[in-house]
Amino acid sequence: DLRVDNLRGENAIYQLVDILRMKIEQIKKLSPKIKLFVTAVLPTRLPQMNKNIMIFNRLVDELLSANFNQTVWHIGVGHFLDSSGLLATNLTRSGDDIHLGIYGIAKFVRCVKHWVYVRARQEWTRRGKHNQSVGSNNP
Description:
This protein is mainly alpha-helical. It has helices at 10-30, 47-67, 102-126, and strands at 36-39, 72-75. It is built from three helices and two strands, in the order αβαβα. It is flat, with a radius of gyration of 17 Å.
């Protein structure tokens, strides 16, 4: 939990990242061929909480690049930020500084669909199946 009230300093964020690392290692051990996505924690409209979230996301990005490069995809949050680096107000619920509203959820779903498509397309290209569409039943 990255809420300001729940953290006892930046060291707690490092502990959360370490827990994530252990979970990814367990998943990959149980299913080595899994296509794993890790979404970054979405920002909020609360500057102090957002600071913790951005530290966490940076550490997760560094962890994945160093230890799981090309096997785990880290999905970023840049599309959800306003010019101040906070969650854009048009993506939130009315009067809610943390949760996505209908437009935010729709944007998140579009982004996830795009990321999954891009990864699948790269897999097909890497395997030399350039002319086959993603999702096709033909091997």
